[in-house]
Amino acid sequence: MKDSNFLKEHNGRLMWHPMTSPQDSQHTPPKIITAAQGVRITDIDGHEVIDAVGGLWNVNLGYSCQPVKDAIAAQLDVLPYYSTFRGTSNDAVIELSYELQQFFAPDGMRRAFFTSGGSDSVETTLRLARQYHKLRGEAGRTKFLSLKKGYHGTHIGGASVNGNANFRSAYEPLLPGCFHIPAPYTYRNPFGESDPERLAQLCLQALEDEIAFQGANTIAAMIMEPILGAGGVIPPHASFAPAVQEICNRHGILLITDEVITAYGRTGAWSGARLWGVQPDMMATAKAITNGYFPFGAVMLGERMVEAFEDNPAAKIGHGYTYSGHPVGAAAALACLAETQRLNVIENAAARGTQLYEGCLALQRKHPLVGDVRGGHGLMTAIEMVSDRATKTPLDAKRAGIVQEVAYQSGAMVRVSGPNLILSPALILSEADASAILAALDAGLTAAEAV
Ligand code: PLP
Questions:
Q1: Of the candidates 249, 330, 338, 257, the residue with the CA atom closest to the CA atom of residue 295
Q2: Which residue ranges form the domains of the chain, and what is each CATH number?
Q3: Pocket test for ligand 1, best of 116, 119, 225, 266 (most atoms within 8 A of CB)
Q4: pLDDT tens sequence across 258-306
Q5: Which residue of 114, 123, 151, 264 sits with most ligand 1 atoms within 8 Å of its CB, as the best mutation to test the pocket?
């Protein structure tokens, strides 16, 4: 490995980083992370902090999960790769299919289709949704519905159902036939409604109206995150998801839950669908399936999909990735699933999630920059920062950056996305670590308020 001067000199110059401008990376070179242990990361200058981002919502078991590392190494030794395209499979992925079917049985999931990550998983669900309707003689059902503020990855299909202009406008025109429903976002919504239950009703009415306007027989699927993540951690009222499912069922529209963040325990339940008591037709999963140690994803498929595809000899799946069912990814996922269940991570996610959420509410009482605090369902928490509480003016990028940087210097890596400060640490976080994150945020907010 080259020395640190070399690395710093070339940092941000020779690669384009996702979700930022090349100029930004050149002017403000990214932090160079060189090591990680437990829930902590260390940068090139030896500064160690708690990773309150959890990698990118994916390192649920922390950075020292030895069974997963061992499983990867062992699988590399025996079978580093083989394809699962027509005619071949591998032992690890067969076992994983079995384990996933058991794990997601309470969600009504019966089969798995493997991918290389979250965007691939989303794309797979959209494609299979269209094919499902074609197989059933309803070829006119091609449109997709989703929520504003939703995030569904960056492929063209996923970007088309994304509900945030930042991920769309530079890449338009996107897929035709994608329509967005207002999100149950209590802090800001077009109805001026601050009661979560009434807001859920208004969003559901908007969904019904859009279906009536488009014509139900033109709509393939509704895709939504059980709790909106990248859009700023927006949990809907408990009545929302079950009512979406009822509406979709009534209109013959498939329901896809995008569980790239919410599956495998992050919400304090084993899946987002289970958190709300719904049974979708498909679930897109990725991220924590391999704890971030290997790029991998799984789409889980429910009974309707099984019937449409398995009862029809002509139902050929013209879709798949070179790395679908990669044996090393499958071995990593098997070890993660075992470890996730052995540690029963949902209990700690719920307890530490409550601690962080309540701690952020305490910060709101202290700091005028905290406009809204959202969370309360496992380790998904956000603070929405404002420069003025009365007008809810989003905090400027400069002061948001100060909050992030001072928090980092004070011991916690936190993620700032627009005015949102997002906390998604590993599910094995300790009580002391959670307190340390809150103290670092306190320092960051204090510093930004002094500017
Ligand atoms: N869907 C959701 C809900 C996500 O949060 C993400 C990534 O954050 C994706 C899809 C895309 O996943 P990936 O970045 O692995 O392609």
A1: 330
A2: 31-61+344-449 (3.90.1150.10), 67-342 (3.40.640.10)
A3: 119
A4: 999 999 999 999 999 999 999 999 999 999 999 999 999 999 999 999 9
A5: 151
